[in-house]
Amino acid sequence: MEMNQTRRIVLRGAGSIGALSALIMAGVLKPTAAYAADWNKAAFEAKDTPAALKGLGAASAAESKDLVLKVPDIAENGAVVPVDVISNIPNTTSIAILVDKNPTALSAQFSFANGALPEVSARIKMGQTSLVKAVAKAGDKFYIAQKECKVTVGGCGG
Amino acid sequence: MKNYIVTIPAAVAVTALLAGCAGGPSRSEAEYRQLALDTIKRDFQAKGQAKYERLTADELQQACNAHANNPPPELAAKLAGAQLATVKLPADDKYLGDWKSGEKIAQSGRGFTWSDKAENPAGGNCYNCHQIGPNESSFGTVGPSLLGYGKTRGNSPEMQKYTYSKIFNAKAFNLCSEMPRFGHAGALNEKQIKDLVALLLDPASPVNK
Amino acid sequence: MADPMKIRAQMKGDVAEIRILMSHAMETGQRKDAAGNTVPAHFIQSITIDVGGKRVVDGQTGTAISRNPVFGFKMKGAKAGDKVVVNWVDNKGDKRTDEATVA
Amino acid sequence: MKRSIVMATALTVTWSLPAAAQTKDANAEFEKFRAEMEESNPAELFELKGEELWKAKRGPKNVSLAESCDLGQGIGKVEGAWVKMPRYFADADAVMDGERRIVWCMTEKQGFKFADIAKKPFQGANDNNAPDITNLVTYVASASKNMKFDMPLHDDKVRDAYETGKAMAAYRAGPYDFSCNTCHGADGKRIRMQNLPNLSSPEGALRGVQGWPGYRMTGGVMLTSQWRMNDCFRQQRFPEPKYASQAVTNLIAYMTGNANGQMYKGPGIKR
After folding, report:
1. What is the predicted ipTM?
2. What part of B 140-169 touches D (C-beta under 8 Å)?
3. Core-most of B192, D24, D211, D241, by most CB within 10 Å?
4. Is the pTM of this model over 0.90?
């Protein structure tokens, strides 16, 4: 029952430009939110983790056990690797996910406000076995955690 | 030699399942086999290199199909002889190729599907069903593990010849084996089979380390 | 036009769990099609979530997010009936906004 | 070719543990994340589209399936229909699986041409959209979530489809001498890392029908049981089973019959 209600709401979802403008006018969305202009190009296009961290301003991130990174030891499929990050570091305001050996290391970064808990679950692509890293920002300091995830061959080898 | 080969009992105990059902089958097994064949011939179509003719079972396949992979002894003996006769041994009497190349062939699962190009060489599909080298953890278990194959069996000329023949036509040694007849089917050529023999028997191959 | 998202927002105790499914190709720009041509990068770059009229998550994403992205977030301070508005924008300027109600 | 992930390089992994132990661990590891993966399954996106399609007036006859299509539980009724098919439909005088039945409704009730549906019935890897029929199947299947398989095997015609499917599964031919049972006739077998269900056992048959239609992580596409059968025959090195043919229904009947009495969890997520 609950699912059906959700579905109906989604189907009524405001997909058109008109509806979007209405939301902006209603003050639900800030106009800036509708454009990806503030996308951190330097960080997202960085080829390796050090450069991506620099792009995030997190070059000096310190290892922390209070930053919990959950990824499988072995990925069932490198195209869809589940990643959960939970920060137990007080005053965490953002979390980023990186994969050392991907062509571009940075996968995503999320900032939290207004009651959002500093945790995220996402699914990412991995081209090969690699260290996966989570970076959290708390105050003006950065923290890092890492775990290896193996990517294997499977299926009928075709 | 024969006891090195693990037979996979196919069509095991299929009847047990039906016991609990209310209405049983209304025809005999042979009738359903015929119905299955008629349905396949009607409802399948050629695609890519997978031509319609592939649906027709050859003499050996027919015997295995008709007797649940266990043909009566007389028929089996006749067919086994015919299968052994298909094995073409190398003219130069050399069986050990290059194990490194053999590993690549063993890794490849390509060949003979309707999405494979007919002109591209087929792979051995070996890891699909067998554990072979110690560095490949993604291996199948339809066939027995071949890790240490040469270490336990030695590398005698007879063993080389047997291994070559087994890959060429597994049915010569185990009539309704699940393993394809790679040489007989034209999937692997002489050089490729020699390379696979080397992968399994060469003392330098990681399989035997 | 982009396909609708599916948003589920549910109170579990005093925490609202928000799960979002998005319909997007998330092309990396490195994949080649059957003809051998590189498929141009096409991926979501920005994701925002507003609950009860307040911005709670502001995210940026790259090409390594899986096709048909799935995200999960949690928040405190929300209540049943609050409106959840999720918005994404991709590198080609395509965008989509959908909403749901916290249950 | 199989994976369209970030890089197309061949993947080689070196291990320090004995390989067999790792594989066992690997499958346990996959299972740990399975519940989470299933909880938020992109299949739901296809289900949404399927529901819209089911209710929309479409085709040359401009009627909806909701007002014209009987999946065996009454016109337009989708709840529980999926787990009770294949079944015999008198109006078509045939035993049909769910997908075949929806195709029949689309051609007979809505006036679509079969050839148009059969031209590209499955979503290709990395295709942006699934065919309408796939979305419809996903919607109909989702309406049997958490219900038990209950194919009417006591019906003689269904029984014939089941028995014929069983015999088809044992039929060996082609260049590699394969049958369905070569891979799916015994317990505890794997192709590479992939576990192979034994379709003759209740547990294995359930795994054969569970999670279909399913969202496939490889290529990020939604695929149906009809596709699963089709791709098995590709790997069996056979010619292709015709789309929505009796042959495919028979095989689905064989698996569903063996899975009877067990719970269907709805559209799944596949490797």
Report:
1. 0.82
2. 140-142
3. D241
4. no
